[in-house]
Model the fold of this input.
Amino acid sequence: MRGTEKLSSFFKTTEMVRPHLKHYQVVGRETPSEKNANPTVFKYEVFAPNHVVAKSRFWRLMNDKNKVKATKGDVLSCSIVRDKKLAARNYSVSLVYYSQKCGYTAMVKEFRDVSKSGAVSQAYNDMAARHRARYAQVEVMGVKSIPDSQCRR
Done:
């Protein structure tokens, strides 16, 4: 009798599984200098487990896209973006991943979740499982909510 009580309590989960990634909005710029007294401010949305990794991801994007390195720049703010309403939605996650065999591969995947960060966490787990792609090799290009009628699968 005792064994079945433990087993039944084991399978009852009342808590929702939290995504391992959070949605961050990082704002930064090049450090003002005599050459450029009023530098352009850039804002990127990144998905990372904590604010340190989010800033690192931000500087990687800044270096790739705007040719600004972390040593020559400032982070103005790094804040978590919360979803307005937690409701089950379909999300389309467009991402690019790198493998040594094939080079860069772009794809769009659809996930059903209650938040953007949950959908992106599912995408990273899926990429790790199906393509052996690590976190550093995957770059999320965009996430958007799509209606049921536009779902492909």
Remarks:
- The longest helix spans residues 51-66.
- The longest strand covers residues 89-99.
- The chain is about 25% helix and 35% strand.
